[in-house]
Known about the structure:
This is Peptidase MA superfamily protein. It comes from Actinoplanes campanulatus. The chain is α+β, with helices and mostly antiparallel strands. The chain has three domains: about 50-160, Nuclear Transport Factor 2, Chain: A; about 200-285, Zincin-like, CATH 3.30.2010; about 290-418, Neutral Protease, domain 2 (Orthogonal Bundle), CATH 1.10.390. It has helices at about 1-20, 50-70, 70-75, 85-95, 195-220, 230-235, 270-290, 300-315, 320-335, 350-370, 375-385, 390-400, 405-415, and strands spanning about 25-30, 35-40, 100-110, 115-125, 140-150, 150-160, 180, 185-190, 225-230, 250-255, 260-265. It has a five-stranded mixed β-sheet. A four-stranded antiparallel β-sheet has the order 3-4-5-6.
Amino acid sequence: MGDGRNSRLGAVLLVALVAVASAGIVLWPTGDGDTAVAARRVTIEPKAPPTPLEQVEALLEAQVDALVKGDEKGWLAPVDTKLQQRYRAIFRNLRALEISYTKLTIEQLPPTAGWMNVGFQLDYCFSTQLCRDGGGNPNVGYKLTWKPRGGSYVITGMAGSGKENYLQPAPWEYTQLAFATGRRVIVAAPPAQRKHLNRVLQVAEKAAAVADRYAGYTGNPQARYRVYLADNKSWNSWYGGKYPAWSVAYQLPLGRVGGDVVVRISEMPSSNKELTTIIQHELAHVVTRASSTNYDEEKDLWLIEGIAEYIGFLPAKPGATYNKDLLSYSFGQRGDLKTVVVKPLTAKSDDLTVATLYATGHFAAGCMAAKYGDKKLLDFVDRVVQLGEELDPASRAAFGTPFKNVDKACVSWIKQRT
Length: 418
């Protein structure tokens, strides 16, 4: 009887051990020989090697990280020798412009002759300017060609992305620029035009102090202003080069986080007073348009240019500027002023039409400032120019009265002063 029980017990234990083993469990002694602890076998699969696209993405991430950190060697590391001059110029330009933020987006494109093509978009910001995670950042795009070499990849080709981008070509993309840096402004120019840098920097620093005061009203404080001086070749290429023949300078919003000013060297006045007005006007655009979500700006051009003229001519009041004589002449030629809301310009607008829009906007802004104060004026401008509000609700919110009342009062105010 006893032997039978032992035999049956042995059989049960044998079955249990087989079941335990088949479940992937092993029994480990605890040290006293009486009990055991179960532990699961873990199988570690070998990690798949990175795909070519993953390798390229890692190289690009390291490259743009080197750019922000100021590591020129790291920036040039994945670049073929024939492209290093251009890449070095880009690096040194962006470092001089105080690049402070980058965000990388890539996409794989169809290969060419076994080489890899990658679409590359770089979001960027300068001088610790706040970039927006939700979009609205300035960006540039390229198509990069990568060739396998030495177990890695190198950039052997760099071309445009093929996508429309009003921010390209940027001044810093192709050749190394010369720079002058002040407390509030960075001025850049082609090396052959470096003789203009110090003069413009001194003027721009004074203009920046005025623009800063109005940036507080609009909630657009700028960490640094940038002014590019363009020779004729640069004027016709930077940012598309599609600016009117009568332009002396322009301001271009960089997404919704700032703006660049470009001044045409061949049209710069010899008078520092006149140059100050031009640059102050353009910096006024930076602080009154930098975070704009107004997608129909054309109809508001009279106010966009009017507030820039108002700030640009300071400390002079509208009646103490040449816009007074210009309006007197314009009204004599084309009839009395009926409204301050001047129609937008077109490609066919003549010089007098252009000048009348600027001057009327200038006097309209001066009227609103005289009647309601700068703070309420800038509130109105912010609502219309940046937020895209219609004139009447913006006027009611900023001035406490319908816009038709403001318009009528300012038409009368302008007539009395011209």
